[in-house]
Write a structure and sequence with these properties.
- The chain is mainly α and about 70 residues long.
- The protein has helices at about 10-25, 30-50; strands spanning about 55, 60-65.
- The chain has one domain (about 10-65).
- It has 2 helices and 2 strands; from the N terminus they run ααββ.
- Helix 1 (about 10-25) crosses helix 2.
- The protein is extended, with a radius of gyration of 15 Å.
- This is CopG family transcriptional regulator.
C-alpha cells in the first residue's frame, strides 16, 4: 500500500497520549497514530455492519460503547 505524508493539527493532550502509547509499546509516533486510526476504522465498520461494541469491566459488568 502506498503511503502519503500528511500534516495534522492535534490538541496537546492527544499528542501526549499518542507519545505515551508510542513509548509504552516501542512504536514510532506515526505507528501509534496509525493504530488509533485503525481502531476508529474498526469501530465504524462494526457500527455500519449493525454490530454492538461491548466492554466488560473489572466488575464483569458488560457495557455497550455508544459513540458520538
Amino acid at each position: 500500500m502506498a503511503t502519503r505524508k500528511v500534516t495534522v493539527n492535534l490538541p496537546e493532550d492527544q499528542i501526549e497520549f499518542l507519545q505515551q502509547i508510542a513509548a509504552k509499546d516501542h512504536l514510532t509516533f506515526t505507528d501509534a497514530l496509525r493504530r488509533a486510526i485503525n481502531s476508529e476504522k474498526f469501530f465504524v465498520q462494526q457500527e455500519n455492519a449493525g454490530c454492538k461494541v461491548l466492554v466488560e469491566g473489572p466488575d464483569q459488568r458488560i457495557r455497550e460503547i455508544l459513540r458520538k
